[in-house]
Amino acid sequence: MALWLARASSQLARRAAAATRGRFPHPPRHGGDTRPWFLGSAVPPPVMGSPAAAAAVGGYRGFCSVRHFTGKSSSAAAASDEELEDGFTDNNQVLDFPGGKVAFEARINFLPESQGERIKCYRVLDDDGQTISGSRFQEVSKEMARKMYSDMVTLQIMDTIFYEAQRQGRISFYLTSHGEEAINVASAAALSIDDLVLPQYREPGVLLWRGFTLQEFANQCFGNNMDYGKGRQMPIHYGSNRLNYFTVSSPIATQLPHAVGAAYSLKMDNKDACAITYFGDGGTSEGDFHAALNFAAVMEAPVIFFCRNNGWAISTPTSEQFRSDGIVVRGQAYGIRSIRIDGNDALAVYSAVHAAREMAISEGRPILVEALTYRVGHHSTSDDSTKYRPVDEIEHWRTARDPISRYRKWVQGNDWWSDAEESELRSRVRQELLRAIQVAERAHKPPVAELFTDVYDQIPSNLCEQEQLLRDTIMKHPADYPTDVPI
């Protein structure tokens, strides 16, 4: 420290003398102070009351504290000081700042608003279902490949039939995963059952892969007394404690900070597991997205952020949401390792999530995955997407870019699937689902009292009053309430 102070004092004294001799070509235009002002001057602050402080009166005025790299000899330091006096630069000095050393430069250099080239997209299968030459991916066994394809087809059929059931007035609401089946099933296949899933509302395929039955799906959509949510949630708001699948919540992006907290708890308990949370491109416009990424990066939580960038947040296109290169660049801004993948390529999705999970757990870090895909269906049964996007665009993605067709070509190319098996699968799933719907429709509804339970150990007086008020209202206006709900 004494040596540093001595050098600093000597340097400041030399600069003060140089300034008075007119070595710096900065004459005053209108009189006044002739000392140059440098933003981030490479001068350590002098100690008050020292000779350096007195010399600083005639020298530079700056406010960034810097120090030399260690290991420099006294002769090299002297040469560096002379260079500073003549050229006002010192590439051997850095600013010690939280997060790492920051080098100085003498030019005004703003970062560009975007990179010259967009971030590339990881892909394994081409549009014809052939592996791209030189592609690297996680191998899948015949058994897993067949199950992945079977579940993708099952999800497609389930979405179609439930959507028709809503149009018939048999359930109140539904939304599909058409065009995003690979994201659902392939990502789930790369996880462990011990991994915690915090979904949005377009990931029923993850539950399907984990063992949620078609009957359980039907029970939730019809809100009967076998529904785990006891009829208190909208359709498609699934949840399963048994399968480590957190119940879907309608507000956008609220599950992201929760996922970080859950992941950090896994880390504290030394669990060989991670958390994964799914969200759409629209969710990245919410504050919870930014809070969650920063939280995860700082706490080094083993969580996978999986973004389905399907181009549309209901009717808002990505071009009206943000100017950045999609979502993947945002991860890097928060200090999170990130990758962009083809979300319609089942092998790419599986391989990327498999690698992301391994890094998240072994290295204790968050990972961001941006999957480029397309929402072929309407946002929900409350939406008509033909009002805001071209029909031919939808048809192109439904046919030419369909993830199920592409993956089937690869599976059949390995002689792991046949047309006969395809026909049998589709017929069986359709019949099983129709039976499940019939059972769900005939089942009793949960009683009114269930609306007020499962929150407090002892129901507070205000909820008791609300329950009584509801009962009284139903008795006065029975025609306005469903007759199949027990009072």
From TrEMBL:
Organism: Eragrostis curvula
SUPFAM superfamilies assigned to the protein according to its UniProt record, in alphabetical order: Thiamin diphosphate-binding fold (THDP-binding)
Family: Belongs to the BCKDHA family.
Enzyme class: oxidoreductase
High-level lineage: Eukaryota, Viridiplantae, Streptophyta, Embryophyta, Tracheophyta
Primary location class: mitochondrion
GO molecular function, one term: metal ion binding
GO cellular component: mitochondrial matrix
Location relative to the cell: Mitochondrion matrix
Name of the featured protein: 3-methyl-2-oxobutanoate dehydrogenase (2-methylpropanoyl-transferring)
Gene Ontology biological process: branched-chain amino acid catabolic process
Subunit organization: Heterotetramer of alpha and beta chains.
